[in-house]
Design goal:
The chain is an alpha+beta fold. The protein has 29 helices and nine strands. A nine-stranded antiparallel β-sheet has the order 4-3-2-1-7-6-5-9-8. Helix 12 packs across helix 29 and helix 22 packs across helix 26. It is globular. The relative contact order is 0.11. The N terminus and C terminus are likely disordered.
Length: about 650
């Protein structure tokens, strides 16, 4: 049994690929060992792999390739990933943007685990999770080598497979042999005791793919420069306040942890913010001390701190560019948009009208299917009736697939039992304050469950994730028809489905775009976030994931959604809404010197306090002001853009469905 465990560090397909590529990697490592052994700092490259790639978006042209290395210095093991310079690419990402993804000499004392993914189609990839709970973006191995990578770590550090998930490997870089013995016995606290400080190494950026070997030998000066990650992480690793604040968002989605894992690395500049490790640690600790004191005594008012002025003069900008809201679209006005057969004459004018006023609630049942793409704008009333009858029959067929599963079959269908159990737990907690979903044995709650279970069979690759019930609830509340609600929800998930991908590429691109828009529209605020390690914009995660569902009252949420669905001005207006809220509270954020934890708590507490009309006016003004530069800041394919049909799987990362 033990033998099988040791062998199964990766699948046989990857091992076969690594046999073809591995000799090159290890011969390169061997030469590096020889050259580095003569260096005074004793840095030794024990593993090196080319063409290890990060996928910032779904576009092949946006991919960033580089070299992954494991480096031994003394008794410590480090990991680096440096992108190649001068890659030929059609990507919009600049060299500066690419450098944001660089992984610079992370010690394995800071690594909690490594998760391996083996999709049915595509390349194997890994996600490296830090002790703090944050992680790096997925690293795709184009030439194989995952087995070698894990085997090398196992040789130089303590690596054990998780008892809960065979694809997760728990890591520790033990300095003390006694601690290694304790951990092998799985005694409590052995890991945390072992996580002591270790010497860091610095890695300079490789000038090019061809000249990288030369750069490798001069990268280690032994002076303990830290990685771009470590400055903040070490001061936060055992911070209960941070853990508590992060748990708030983890409740919203199964994928939230992966979002936290894979978004927090994206936007950190490397050694360019003017903070050394000690300076940053002192700075962050000072902010934490202040936030704790403020919570103990709310009567204390912090000293007034000068806040840089808004370069756009935001209030004036909104008055000039942001148009006032109008009354909602009513039935009488709606009829003027239709011809005698029920076709919509001018869809652009209709969407613009809804953008500025929303829709009367009684009319939403008729209009929402157009906005969601279930009905075509040029379809007749008769064509829509026929489509609904066909789709109702199709829905019942899909629904029958899970309804026909017998108890005996369910015992042998783990994924079905897991999804069904998760959905049943979620629906009874979704919007129960509404009379529509209130009470025991509420038939509408049962409809929520049935639609979500049916969707998990309709889109088996994506399945179900917490947060989806939040998106379905208003649709069922408005349409009050099971089949129609299902197809409108499915249409919405065509755009928002990437929000729930396990590798979190959809969330990556949106949070990255928010960072670029803030930089474009409010450089002082962007610089403040940069100085306080907030460039990941993870505090916007809940806003983006479920489209501000928890930030507004139910009626206002529906009005916001129908405005966003018009795609008037931009299909990414929700990103400008995020920027508008941040700018509206910029003075408080910067004046009170909020760090990440304080900011996350502050953003969560804004729920129910944001003025929707003002926010929409602000977002419109920002979108118009940003213009083409704003559009260029948003990577192609960013949700809610429709995914590109390139023949590949839409959700290739879901490798453990069966």
């Amino acid at each position: 049994m033990q033998e099988a465990e040791l062998h199964d560090l990766s699948d046989d397909a990857d091992y076969a690929a690594s046999q073809l590529q591995g000799s090159t990697s290890f011969s390169r490592s061997g030469s590096s060992k020889k050259s580095s052994s003569s260096e005074p700092d004793g840095a030794e490259i024990v593993y090196s792999k080319d063409n290890v790639t990060i996928h910032p978006t779904q576009y092949a042209s946006e991919r960033i390739s580089g070299r992954l290395k494991l480096i031994k210095q003394g008794s410590s093991l480090f990991m680096t990933w440096i992108p190649y310079q001068g890659q030929r690419s059609n990507a919009r990402l600049s060299e500066k943007d690419k450098n944001l993804y660089t992984i610079r000499a992370v010690p394995f004392t800071d690594v909690r685990s490594i998760r391996r993914h083996t999709p049915t189609l595509g390349w194997q990839y890994i996600i490296v999770v830090l002790s703090s709970g944050l992680a790096f973006p997925p690293l795709y191995f184009y030439n194989g080598g995952v087995r070698e990578f894990l085997a090398t770590i196992k040789h130089h550090a303590f690596l054990v497979r998780s008892a809960d998930d065979a694809n997760v490997f728990l890591v520790n870089d033990f300095q003390d042999p006694l601690q290694r013995t304790f951990s092998s016995l799985e005694l409590p606290m052995a890991v945390s005791v072992a996580n002591g400080p270790s010497t860091s190494v610095s890695v300079s950026e490789p000038p090019s793919n061809g000249n990288q070997e030369k750069a490798d030998q001069s990268n280690f000066d032994g002076r303990g420069a830290t990685s771009q990650y470590n400055g903040r992480q070490r001061s936060k690793t055992h911070d209960p306040a941070r853990d508590l604040s992060i748990q708030v968002l983890e409740k919203f989605s199964l994928v939230t942890k992966f979002a936290r894992d894979t978004t927090s690395q994206l936007f950190r500049e490397s050694h360019s913010d003017g903070f050394s490790y000690n300076d940053r640690r002192h700075h962050n600790q000072s902010l934490l001390d202040y936030s704790h004191k403020a919570s103990d005594d709310e009567q204390k008012v912090p000293d007034e701190i000068p806040v840089p002025s808004d370069p756009l003069e935001f209030d004036k900008l909104s008055l000039v560019w942001g148009k006032p809201r109008q009354p909602p679209l009513g039935s009488e006005e709606w009829s003027t948009f239709l011809d005698s057969e029920g076709r919509i004459l001018d869809s652009k004018a209709l969407r613009k009208r809804i953008f500025y006023g929303g829709i009367e609630h009684s009319l939403r049942k008729e209009v929402w299917p157009f906005l969601l793409g279930y009905h075509a704008y040029d379809s007749t009333s008769a064509e829509r009736e026929y489509l609904m009858s066909i789709k109702k029959s199709e829905y019942e067929t899909i629904k029958q697939q899970w309804q026909s599963i017998s108890p005996e079959q369910a015992k042998r269908f783990t994924k079905f039992r897991e999804r069904k159990g998760l959905i049943e737990k979620d629906v009874v907690r979704t919007d129960r304050s509404l009379s529509f979903y209130d009470g025991d044995d509420n038939p509408n709650v049962n409809l929520l469950r049935d639609i979500l279970l049916t969707y998990s069979f309709y889109n088996f690759d994506l399945g179900y994730c917490q947060g989806m019930s939040d998106l379905l609830s208003p649709i069922l509340f408005v349409l009050k028809d099971e089949a129609e609600s299902f197809w409108c929800f499915a249409a919405l998930m065509e755009r928002l489905g990437p929000n729930f991908n396990r590798d979190q590429n959809g969330m990556h691109t949106q949070l990255f775009a928010i960072s670029k828009l803030v930089e474009l529209l409010d450089s002082p605020l962007h610089n403040y976030f940069k100085q306080n390690d907030c460039l990941n914009h993870f505090f916007c995660f809940r806003w983006v994931l479920i489209q501000f569902k928890r930030e507004f009252e139910y009626e206002k949420t529906m009005r916001l959604w129908e405005v966003l669905w018009t795609h008037h001005l931009s299909e990414h207006l929700h990103l400008y809404v995020c920027v508008a809220i941040l700018k509206r509270y910029r003075k408080k954020i910067m004046g009170e010197q909020m760090d990440f934890d304080t900011l996350l708590k502050f953003i969560n507490e804004l729920s129910g306090q944001i003025d929707l009309d003002v926010t929409l006016r602000d977002a419109e003004a920002l979108c118009i002001c940003a213009g083409e530069n704003g559009a260029a800041s948003i990577p192609p394919g960013t949700p809610p853009s429709l995914p590109i049909d390139n023949g590949l799987l839409l959700y290739p990362q879901q490798d453990d469905v069966l």
